[in-house]
Amino acid sequence: MANSGGISDQLFVSVKLESPRLAELDLAPHLFGSHPVPGSWDPCKALPLERAATAVWEFSCVVPSQHESLDFKFVLKRKDDSSQYIIEEGPNRPLGCQSNEFEMRTAVFKLNEGKEVLECKVQVETEMLSPFDLAASWRAHQEYFQPSRVRGTHDVTINPGLEGRAKNGFASGLELDLEKYVVPTPNMGSGVVYAANLTENPRSLLQTGSSSNNDTTKDILHSSTKGDSSSNHYVNTMKSAIGGHAPSLEEQRAMFVDRGVGSPNFARPTKETFSMSNFKLDSESKGMPAAEGAVAAAAVADQMYGPKEDRKLAIVLVGLPARGKTFTAAKLTRYLRWLGHETKHFNVGKYRRLKHGTNQTADFFRGDNREGVEARNEVAALAMEDMLSWMQEGGQVGIFDATNSTRIRRNMLMKMAEGKCKIIFLETLCNDQDVLERNIRLKVQQSPDYAEQTDFEAGVQDFKERLTYYEKVYEPVEEGSYIKMIDMVSGKGGQLKINDISGYLPGRIVFFLVNCHLTPRPILLTRHGESMDNVRGRIGGDPSLSEAGELYSRKLAGFVEKRLKSERTASIWTSTLQRTILTAHPIIGFPKIQWRALDEINAGVCDGMTYDEIKKCKPEEYESRRKDKLRYRYPRGESYLDVIQRLEPVIIELERQRAPVVVIAHQAVLRALYAYFADKPLEEVPNIEIPLHTIIEIQMGVAGVQEKRYKLMDAIHPTAGL
Question: Which of 331, 421, 521, 570 satisfies CB 3.0 to 4.6 Å to 312 for a cystine?
Fold first, then answer.
């Protein structure tokens, strides 16, 4: 990542070597080569690989991105005599320091004076990471990985081979056609929906009654604030900057605001400005997220020490068409809502289509078309007024989605926001022509602007002409607080530049964006197989699987093998509780990672009880939970909001992953994860249906989030609902 402070990317290098025979031969793998991977070309100074599993050894390090190319080789050493060694056959292995790479190869060693050949599987992965990524990875390793509770199972394992699949019967009669197991999706549709259609409805237009799509001669609609028409407000905003008269195009271009709106201005509270008697600490107070832990603590600090305008945040998108603005805005909106921040997404294109129709040609977007420029600025002002009005009613974060490609437009928005909210510009830049071509064609295919266009290629040509007009007047963001995402949508690295960004929530937004990309990949969510406590109707605990649960674990292994047979970089994530680990046990050929953050909700003193027992022995607790299942916290345990907070690192890592992930977890945890992908309100989280023995496939990519469900077998016993 590059930013105004000059922080540069680092190259994370991971090398894995796999061979069941090494332990039998009492040999330990090492690396040697050019600095800094193994140290030097002296085999005696080679660095050892750490044992990660029974037959897997691993070495990892961080290399400056500006470093020259590296060469290395493997060397095997006797454990009892390190002076004796066997060097890998073949040429040196080159390691590039400028890109993300993944390579699967073989290392060949000659033993017994060349009479015997030993082949080892080698996996080399390099990834450009920012300091934020490195810090987060270390924190996740320290805080969320925990030793397994199942004896003999490692926290991270790579299965040695696929040979045992057929003879162990892991498919367990699973049909070859996985489509036979597809069941309806009750919560989230499987079709592709144009993201802009899901944004906030233009209430200032809908409330006052819009003119017909083709009638642009009527008076401009009035906004709902102070009885002032939005057109007058727009013109007055312009007039105020240039001496009292309506601006010409030349004057608009010359106008520039010389201060960054919402820059930090912290001050200690005084008796006149703050007292505990009028300060609310509950989740109902304005500006406070309905969340626990760090988010709530940060909100308290912001209310105590932050200027009033900093408590409301406007993320203003900037960028040419087809740069992924709406997609980025939708992801950010979903993430902030899931954390409990009151967030809405305002799309100016939706306002434009409602006010001026969907049949505008590319000429409408010319920079020298004064009527078109004024019409587009008018609907931008309408959207901004709606967003600011919503913030005054209690909204916290507004995502303002438009091109906002000139300083005149951005300065108009900053003038309107003065004293009301902090503005951060989020600029998306993309120079990858393949990505742009794909985005353009997807835009024409989905956008209502081209719904009546019968000739697809003519629509593509019109959109490219529109894009050319925007490019002629485009002015990159250099003013105020901003985040620049440069070539990040392809998932192949890119840069994130930031300026004048501070505070808890802006920091979380930066951390989220640095991990986002558009690489299509499936995420499979499933509960563990039926456990003995499911049979008994008891909550919590660390039980083993029932007979039905063991059968599901074998069926799941067969499903994963068929569904991900071409995805050898996929991984399996479980909690540290044995019912998830045992469910994942039959799956062979994929690394398995345990997360403590994926453990079931902590039922505290109610752990191991049935709900009938809780109702009888702890009636007050039973009633409190019934009234507010989202916020109810088990005595000495957790609430759903607590679970959401501890799952944030899991969400960040799922967003960062470019390969498929299978998450085997628990009902409450999967409800919270599913709510993120489906953009469900927090109040619905405790009641989301996550049935046993069912796989929920979430497809993530440029088209958004889609869902598919597979039911491999019926649950024999009803399950307790945490």
Answer: 421
